[in-house]
């Protein structure tokens, strides 16, 4: 059996994959954000948020659809993303300094309530290298959060359990009042992914 056939068979058995199709979401990842929000209440009406690693757009789609008021979403990804209401999408390399600076300029002076990141590196199969890349992306996401969040703002970030994660969590606790790790039911059991939920940013005064 081909790899593609195996993948399709696995997806058809995945209740979240089928549910996302039935409910009109762009990917099964939407249920991770939904369960994170049920756990931590990070989403609110009229919010402004940054969605890093956004494509195909299910997290932005969820915020746009479920939150009322003047919601503003700034979404970023290397991969193109189809248009979503209330979403300002920027396509580019988040690790590129020029693109990073342009992103900060676009968001400049905004009152950002939430920075959320579902970013993951392209997997090479070399565990140490892949883990280092995932921590680097998480550090960039946190840097954006520190740069843009308003006082008491929140930060959600995908991590992979392994070297560097404990240190990342420790450093994040220096910037936020509450920091916890959470694995949504929608995360595949075999995946080492886990989500950091950091609430109540201390702001720029410390």
Notes on the protein architecture:
40% of the residues lie in helices and 24% in strands. It contains 7 helices and 7 strands, in the order H-H-H-E-H-E-E-H-E-H-E-H-E-E. Helix 4 (58-66) links the parallel strand 1 (48-52) and strand 2. It has a single domain (3-201), classed as 3-Layer(aba) Sandwich (Rossmann fold), CATH 3.40.50. It has a 7-stranded mixed β-sheet with strand order 3-2-1-4-5-7-6, sandwiched between helices. It is α/β, with parallel strands linked by helices. The protein has helices spanning 3-13, 15-23, 30-40, 58-66, 97-107, 127-148, 165-173; strands spanning 48-52, 72-77, 87-91, 112-117, 149-160, 176-182, 193-201. The chain starts with a helix and ends in a 5-residue tail after the last strand. The radius of gyration is 17 Å and the shape is globular.
Main attributes of the structure:
206 residues; alpha/beta; Rossmann fold; seven-stranded mixed β-sheet; 7 strands; 40% helix; 24% strand; disordered N terminus
Helix count equals 7
Structural class by secondary-structure content = alpha/beta
CATH architectural arrangement: 3-Layer(aba) Sandwich
- Number of self-contained structural domains: 1
- Radius of gyration over all CA atoms, rounded: 17 Å
Gap between N and C termini: 57 Å
Give me the CATH superfamily: Vaccinia Virus protein VP39
Global outline? globular
The percentage of residues in β strands lies in 15-25%
């Amino acid at each position: 059996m081909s790899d593609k056939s195996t993948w399709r068979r696995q997806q058809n058995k995945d209740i979240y994959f089928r549910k996302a199709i039935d409910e009109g979401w762009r990917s099964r990842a939407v249920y991770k954000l939904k369960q994170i929000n049920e756990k931590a209440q990070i989403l609110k009406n009229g919010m402004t948020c940054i969605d890093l690693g956004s494509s195909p757009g299910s997290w932005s789609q969820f915020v746009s659809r479920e939150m009322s008021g003047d919601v503003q979403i700034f979404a970023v990804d290397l991969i193109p993303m189809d248009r979503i209401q209330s979403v300002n999408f920027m396509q580019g390399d988040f690790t590129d300094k020029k693109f990073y600076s342009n992103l900060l300029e676009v968001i400049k002076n905004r009152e950002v309530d939430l920075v959320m990141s579902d970013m993951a590196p392209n997997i090479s199969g070399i565990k140490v290298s892949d883990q280092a890349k995932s921590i680097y992306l998480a550090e960039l996401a946190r840097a954006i959060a520190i740069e843009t969040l308003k006082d008491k703002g929140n930060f959600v970030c995908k991590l992979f359990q392994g070297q560097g994660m404990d240190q990342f969590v420790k450093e994040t606790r220096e910037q936020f009042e509450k920091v916890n790790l959470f694995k949504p039911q929608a995360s595949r059991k075999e995946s080492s992914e886990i989500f950091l939920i950091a609430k109540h940013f201390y702001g720029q005064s410390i």
